[in-house]
Amino acid sequence: MTQYDLEQHVHYLLKGGEVSMNKISKLGLAALGWAVASPVFAQGVNTRIPIEGYGSNSPEEIVIQLINWVLGILALIAVVLILIGGFKWMTAAGNEEKVEGAKKLIIAAIIGMVIVLAAWGISLYAVSILAGVTGTSTV
Predict the structure, then answer these.
(1) Which of 8, 57, 80, 85 has the most Cβ atoms closer than 10 angstroms to its Cβ?
(2) What does the alpha-carbon distance between residue 102 and residue 91 come to, in Å, rounded to a whole number?
(3) What pTM value is reported for the model?
């Protein structure tokens, strides 16, 4: 079977031969309907799963950890950008345009790092104030 014959056979199948796109889409919708309705078919079955070992952190602790995690990732990105800027500067080989581009990247990364550190400080301050007002303790 040549490439042309194979293309014609696939085209024939998709146009309405033995398997059409309409049939495939109907089958996909039926599978989706079955997946959505399957919890209904399980009525009367005990589906209660004991929830153990998922941690005992309060919502405040979760928010604090999330903020610290996001700001840590952003600080890591800023450090990587500083390193990339330094590498570009080192490999510029005296080309003034490349050196200027590297300087701009380093300055932008340092500004980003300052913003991340300021956001961390502000969020730490805001969480401590909110914890003091609500009577809860921070981590």
Answers:
(1) 85
(2) 10
(3) 0.55
- Residue identified by tokens 């999330």 is 66
Q: What is the pLDDT of residue 37?
A: 61
Cβ-Cβ contacts under 8 Å for 68 (sequence gap 6 or more): 120
Residue keyed to tokens 């390193």: 83
Amino acid at 10: V
Contact 58, 133 (CB under 8 A): no
Tokens standing for residue 112: 């980003």
Q: Which of 15-19, 53-57, 130-134 has the lowest mean pLDDT?
A: 15-19
Nearest to 108 by CA among 70, 77, 64, 68: 77
Tokens 């405040």 sit on residue: 60
Question: Cα 61 from chain centroid?
Answer: 21
For residues 111 and 28, what is the distance between their CA atoms, to the nearest angstrom? 50
Residue with tokens 């919502």: 59
Domain range annotation of the chain: 3-41, 59-134
What dihedral angle (degrees, nearest 10) is formed by the CA atoms of 127, 133, 135, 136?
Answer: -10
Nearest-angstrom CA–CA distance, 139 and 118: 19
